[in-house]
């Protein structure tokens, strides 16, 4: 793990740590480890799934804008992805529906945990969408490119073309690393990744 600074005790609660990383870098694993250390985690992806799942608050709006992309199980992510990947206009339209709802959920999360020393905002597009401005420090999960590709290509419905399209939407890993306060290396045994997480969590708990 690389860390550029060890923040002092936070002046306001909760201290907000942004957790991000490119697709397939192990962000979900890192987030789960923060939770095991007792740190509340807001999972932006999980919130999107909830909002787009059966009976989700955004299903009707998405169906209205992207007809044929929803059903009894909510949004069909493969159908929706086929509509927006590689089409900046359509992607922007989807983001205009999704991002405000996720932002409201994030505010509710922060209000619930305002007495905690530190919370984690797990946000895949932290750099890409300007979320880095709203956090006190940034932890980037990273792994070798070959490992990233292997992890991603194991996912159902994933293709090389789809991975390439997703990568075009994301800030490169090397740039994320250069802007991070902490770099969590996930290409190592999980015990080592967990050790890194414990250290980071210890930086923000009141001393």
Please describe what this structure looks like:
The chain has 207 residues and is an alpha/beta fold. The protein has two domains: 1-40 and 115-207, P-loop containing nucleotide triphosphate hydrolases (Rossmann fold); 48-112, no CATH class. Helix content is 48%, strand content 14%. The chain has a six-stranded mixed sheet, sandwiched between helices. A two-stranded antiparallel sheet has the order 4-5. Strand 4 (70-71) and strand 5 (74-75) form a beta hairpin. Helix 2 (44-52) packs across helix 5 (88-112). It is globular, with a radius of gyration of 17 Å. InterPro entries: Depp_CoAkinase, P-loop_NTPase. Its EC number is 2.7.1.24. This is Dephospho-CoA kinase. Pathway: Cofactor biosynthesis; coenzyme A biosynthesis; CoA from (R)-pantothenate: step 5/5.
